[in-house]
Amino acid sequence: MLKRLLCWAAASYITGVFSAQYISIEQSIVLVFIALLICIVKIIISRNTVNLFPAMLFVCMLAVGTIQFKIASNTNLKPIAQFVDKPVTFTCQVIEQPVVKKERIEYTVRISRVYFNNNWYSIHTKVKLICPGNNKTPIYQYGDILQVRNELHIPSQPFNEGGFNYNYYLNAKGIHAVSYAAPYQIKKIGVLMRTNIIEEFVYRSRQSVTRTVNKFLPENEAALLKGIIIGDRTGFSEKMTENFSRSGLSHLVAVSGMHVAILLTGITYLLGLFNINKYLSKVISIIFIILFIFITGCTPSVLRASIMAIIFLLSYLVNREADAYTSLFFSALAILLYNPIILFDIGFQLSFCATLSLFLFYKPIYSKLGVLPKWIREVAAASIAAQIGTVIIVAYHFNGVSLISIVSNLIVVPFTSIVLISGVILYVLGSINAVAGYIIAGFSYVLLKFILFSSSLFANLPFATLAVPSPDLFFVIAYLLILFMLYNLLQGTKNIFQFRSVFFLLIVVFISSVVVQFWQKNNLEVTFVNVGQGDCIFLRCPGGKTILVDGGGSEGRNDYNVGENIVIPYLLKRGVMSIDVAVVSHYHDDHAEGILTMLENMLIKTLMLPLREEENQLKKNLVENANHRLVPIYYLSKGDKLKIDNKVVVEVLGPGMNQVKNPLLNENNKSLILKLQYGSVSFLLTGDIEKEAEGYIAECGGLLTANVLKVPHHGSDTSSTEKFLRQVSPEYAVISVGRNNFGHPSKQVLERLENNKISIYRTDVNGTVTFITDGKVIKNIKVFKEGE
């Protein structure tokens, strides 16, 4: 019988949940039957039934994980499904403190009734209500009953590889829909005095802590203390968040094991003063831990730490010794059985892996640091051990690794425990006596100021964070093999056969990686990145050079940077650290702002701009940023040719000087028109040209013919005339488009494309669209999401 059976069962369940993203329920059932059949056959042949139960348990847990995730993530199975994307009126109650941001207010509400098709339906589900706001917008409070006339939507899913999954993020919190409502669509119709007892307790407790802390401390220090005590980071400025992330100190404001340990120590000490027996003390401690879970918002890290603490307390009550690994895996299994989508919560991944890594590596690392003072050894060993387990996750999600986290944690962590204790004392005494509160607040202020100063100091060091691409599967496997070897070395294992086996597997992984890269080296990849209502086309050439044609943009939105939030993360997920050539098709925000952001982040080696006689602010910003960073600039017009390598050529078909100087042509019609040729396969990239430009480039004749057409101007009815489509005669058309108020793509354009028997791909439907060609044929077309 395998040791720690529960750990293996939990691992099987987690594997099932993870693999559910890639296989269907039917496929998982087939795999289960095949696995069971293999087990039965093996047992019949060997006549050994000892491992029958573990094998069947693992297979069943794998299947349960897959099926449960499919059910939990299936929107059609949720009560809200019948009302999605339809005009409705719903009654709801605000169940959390609203989050006020620069240009919007976010409410978490619970719907009780929905009015649809002249009928009221009773329904109970949590929804994120988002309302644009300013200083004059009313802010509704906890307990308010609202009536909202609007639509309900499923939270957005990532349409690019590695993108943020807002749907998973909200689903992990039990929220299954969002509603974007204007202030006039929301009406307060009452206040519910009696609400859910637990929600009421949580809200009142958190509000009490918030009021007390805000009363005695300045804004930034209060925000930090609230983050440390109850994990509330809503008061963090963008700069504070960035400083803690870059300095490797973000975990200090993620309520976790340290908080639970201090809570238990404090409760045990207080109960000991009253001579309460140990058994009753443990029961009372469990009750306080459960209350603490709710007060801190039931985050995955708190749930993990609290469940483990409760297991250890229960083991004492039944006179059993708790196993750390079994407790950890049981806590993970309990959390995921409740909601399997939490597996994809970054906080859960970091908390679980950090704890597992601490169990594995803390003691051996601590023993190796024997020459250092005890407190330095403890903090350094914990920091190194935790980083070993989380660095791969941090690199994947955030594309950065803190190089100074060990040093910053050595300096700051010892003070964090003191701050936590002093913060609790401040809350207790400050609620009773103002003078005592100010005395404790003065002490806390000094420590909080020191932590803020340290985070800023470390974050602003030029080498604080190393930007890295997201690790691929080969890298992850190699890293895990190295960790296995490191663990055995630290444990003093001298099994030569084991080390040789690991070394052999590392060689296999390396060779496999090289073979895959060699297999793809003759391919040209042309990817139409989903940047919403804008254009962004990424090219990876056979020789390895990279080109970016346009970079999308925010179209005047001040609260969202497409380059920073979509384009750069996408490139890093693809392993691209810089762009060899960036081309701007024309000077409109939805095409060029992302390029500007990449220039600011020093990710572009050469910039190519459309030739213009007149100046505008966007062009000025691009030129100034490029000059400041010594990026060479070239201006393109009709007749220019770019030889990217020996096989890939980009020819500029327009605009010519006549069009550049023509005052009657708008900026759209002066877009660069690029013909990308690789062997016998070609792509026509048209920017935002309209029918006027389609008319003047007709003189190019056969040069316009292409296998793939980037449909002009997001599918606007001002472009893609019948004559133009026949002249280009593409097999495939890609429309780069997002949610908009312009009617893009127009029905007429879609009909013209269909009538010409052109296969259509849309970034708003398919997400990222990638064409892979060897120069002879288009070998593969990959979409991030299949069309509906």
Describe the structure.
The protein has 788 residues and is an alpha/beta fold. Helices cover 49% and strands 16% of the residues. Helix 1 packs parallel to helix 11. The model has no long low-confidence stretch (mean pLDDT 88).
Total beta strand runs: 24
Q: Which structural class fits the helix and strand makeup?
A: alpha/beta
* Main sheet summary: 8 strands, mixed
Percent of residues in helices = 40-55%
Summed up, the helix count is 25
**Average pLDDT score:** 88
Q: What is the terminal-to-terminal distance?
A: 48 Å
What shape does the CA trace take?
globular
Q: Spans of 5+ residues with little confidence (pLDDT < 50)?
A: none
Which SSEs are present, and which pair or pack?
Elements: H1 5-19, H2 25-46, H3 52-73, E1 87-94, E2 99-100, E3 104-116, E4 119-132, E5 144-151, H4 166-171, E6 175-180, E7 186-191, H5 197-216, H6 219-230, H7 238-246, H8 257-273, H9 278-295, H10 300-317, H11 324-338, H12 346-368, H13 374-398, E8 400-402, H14 405-432, H15 434-459, E9 465-467, H16 473-490, H17 496-520, E10 524-528, E11 537-540, E12 546-549, H18 562-573, E13 581-583, H19 589-600, E14 607-610, H20 617-628, E15 633-636, E16 641-643, E17 648-654, H21 657-661, E18 673-678, E19 681-685, H22 691-696, E20 708-710, H23 722-728, E21 732-735, H24 747-755, E22 759-762, H25 763-766, E23 769-773, E24 778-783
Parallel strand pairs: 4-6, 12-13, 13-14, 14-15, 19-20, 20-21, 21-22
Antiparallel strand pairs: 1-3, 1-5, 2-3, 3-4, 5-7, 8-9, 10-11, 10-23, 11-12, 16-17, 17-18, 18-19, 23-24
